[in-house]
């Protein structure tokens, strides 16, 4: 249902896009990582019933569990509500992501966006600095990104890549807001 709602929306919202552009746009928005991010924003992890083992190993923050839970919520709404309500709900959750993904490299690929922005504006390439904290089973990575020697964004994640993407997203937004 998620793919159907997103496909319906992007087909009507972006009539100028070729099919070769629409399919990756849809895929970017409905992929597991995007659903896990949405679940985090909605604080869905707090509502999950988990076994002791998953609870102890940080299951409420695991992207695979959050993604599956988000799909389950969307499926439950589909079974319980009229189609129009499902569309309104899913679009409310995803419209901003769809708009961002339609602008250029994928919504989550802010490292590429930031690097392209810096190159266009004659700035040095972004420099990422990482630290980590927590035990091995629940490691958190913290990233700071510097542009022209100045810290422009910070982010965190369960992997180095997630932390750098979050820092790049923060920096990209800051730089865009300053324009």
Largest sheet: number of strands, sense, barrel closure: 3 strands, antiparallel
Got a strand count?
A: 3
Helicity range: 55-70%
Question: Proportion of β residues?
Answer: 5-15%
Radius of gyration computed on alpha carbons: 18 Å
Structural class: alpha+beta
| Lateral arrangement of strands in the main beta sheet | 1-2-3
Separate helix tally: 8
Name the helix and strand elements from N-terminus to C-terminus, one letter apiece.
HHHHHHHEEEH
Mean pLDDT: 89
Ranges with pLDDT <50 over ≥5 residues? none
**Span of the ends, CA to CA:** 38 Å
What is the topology?
Blueprint: H1 2-13, H2 19-30, H3 32-41, H4 52-56, H5 63-80, H6 83-102, H7 110-120, E1 127-133, E2 140-147, E3 150-157, H8 160-178
Short description:
This protein is of the alpha+beta class.
How would you characterize this protein structure?
It is a single chain. The chain is of the alpha+beta class and 179 residues long. The chain is 60% helix and 13% strand. The protein is built from eight helices and three strands. Strands 1-2-3 form a three-stranded antiparallel sheet, with helices on one face. The longest helix is centred in the middle third of the chain and has 20 residues, at 83-102.
Keywords:
179 residues; alpha+beta; 13% strand
């Amino acid at each position: 249902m998620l793919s159907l709602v997103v496909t319906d929306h992007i087909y009507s919202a972006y009539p100028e896009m070729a099919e070769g552009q629409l399919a990756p746009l849809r895929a970017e928005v409905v992929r597991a990582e995007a659903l896990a991010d949405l679940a985090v924003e909605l604080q869905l992890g707090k509502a999950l019933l988990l076994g002791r083992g998953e609870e102890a190993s940080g299951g409420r923050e695991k992207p695979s569990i959050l993604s599956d839970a988000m799909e389950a919520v969307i499926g439950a709404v589909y079974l319980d509500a009229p189609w129009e309500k499902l569309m309104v709900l899913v679009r409310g959750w995803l419209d901003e992501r769809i708009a961002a993904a339609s602008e250029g490299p994928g919504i989550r690929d802010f490292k590429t966006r930031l690097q392209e922005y810096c190159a266009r504006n004659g700035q040095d390439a972004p420099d990422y600095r990482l630290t980590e904290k927590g035990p091995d089973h629940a490691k958190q990575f913290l990233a700071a990104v510097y542009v022209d020697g100045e810290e422009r964004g910070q982010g965190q994640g369960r992997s180095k890549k997630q932390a750098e993407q979050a820092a790049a997203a923060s920096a990209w937004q800051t730089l865009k807001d300053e324009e």
